[in-house]
Here is the input.
Amino acid sequence: MTTSDGRLAFAARLTSATSVQDLADRLYAGVGAVFPDTFVGFDVLDPDTYRPLRTTASGVSKFFLSRYDRFAREDDPILHEAITQGTVAYNLQSMTLDEWTSHHIYREVFAMHHIVGLVYAPVKIDGRVVATLNFGRSARRALFSEGELDDARGLAELVGNVMASLGRVELVERRAALYGDALDLVSEPIVITDVAGAQRYPNAVAQRLLAERAGAGTSFDEAVVAFESHSNQGAGTQFVRWIAAAPSGEAFVAFLLEDPSDQQIPEWLLRVLTPREAAVFSLVATGLRDMEVAQQLNLSVHTVKGYLREVLRKSGARSRSELARIAASKERHHD
Here is the structure.
């Protein structure tokens, strides 16, 4: 007789699995707390064809598994019932013991381990069967009780929840890896700051740049503060070209100047522009329209127009095209 503490510990270990293989290992290691004297199998299936993608078991030989897949899986009426009806199927509820032991799949496969009691519990994710838990007992202890059938149903539901969670984690990790690879392919130095999570993610170019500038001059965080506070000291624009905040407000993306000497803003103009005005100047000088600048800087179009008026006034330029010429020549504009 198993204890409730043993069952809870077993369930807790299953929910801590880090992969499907780890889940199978934890299942086999602790399933005796729920099903003593039982052969146990765990088959991961293609949810469209129900063909096995991964077949493992505890207590039976590899030859048994191979022979089952070749000679019994297609004709197994108990497995077919479990999958098509989506519920626990028990051979001795569907047929008598004599009928079972006379069936060709028993004679060709299950007789190898004298398995006369057989239960399949379908594992489902979003209503689709993605695996089965397989339980077998020899003649010494053939019968499964109603309570054990309920346990099989509950265990299959738990395994399905764990597999669904593992799938979501795998998807997030795959996306994160792809996004990280894509970010590293960008030649511009970019730093993503997760404020809520207290983490920072520079791409490859930004990592090199931050390492080179460590301990020298304005730090990255000082530049961010200067940019966000609209400081006139130019500290932000000497390091940070512009900052775009995430809609949630819990993260922001900083686009860095790889080499301050390469910036488009002449030194004389940089001294009189605020960091925000300098960012607007840089983007307008590349030909972006007000709406595009607003999107880049996460500002309203109205705010961008206000910054642009100040840029035109301070630079003495009469038009956007003149701003572009100032950026290209880095010479002082003359009226």
